[in-house]
Amino acid sequence: AQSVTQLGSHVSVSEGALVLLRCNYSSSVPPYLFWYVQYPNQGLQLLLKYTTGATLVKGINGFEAEFKKSETSFHLTKPSAHMSDAAEYFCAVTVDSWGKLQFGAGTQVVVTP
Amino acid sequence: DAGVTQSPTHLIKTRGQQVTLRCSPKSGHDTVSWYQQALGQGPQFIFQYYEEEERQRGNFPDRFSGHQFPNYSSELNVNALLLGDSALYLCASSLSRTSGGSDTQYFGPGTRLTVL
Question: Which of A9, A33, A68, B5: disulfide with A74, CB 3.0–4.6 Å?
Fold first, then answer.
């Protein structure tokens, strides 16, 4: 069975600093990997996804993530944090053909001036 | 193009009651999935509907049931509500293709259910 682990339930970054959110997965088959963002009192919005091909994936709002099979990781980064990046971020994996998502517990990002 | 819509936005019920939540998928989508997000946790998969049938189900009791209509909209029903059913219920829609599960799921804003 697949699972997702997000390291750090809360991350605080200064405005303009690097944002790094860690995600590790376990899966017996090549996974499809996703990062979603959730703003307060809203649903989930897709930031980016990895299916096949290039392992460095670029998403919306300046985020990107790199799939590293050898490390079973899919960490999310953004070079320069903005106040509007304050939100909760979820890493998710699906390995079945119907797209059932299994989510990590989430990482709350706080951006300080 | 309207995205995924859900109603109602908020709902307060008491233990033992029954509740129905509604979801309209994104235009052109034929698959609806429901997730439960308890406070401070990631969403948990409840079930998925395709062609008006429950195609896949997560680890939830039979008190949780659903339906999909010919226009692809969906309902989630929960019977005999427990305090632990208090959560944000998210609906997600997608288009089923032969892409092995890589299709993006688009989420609605959710329904906040409080059980007293």
Answer: A33
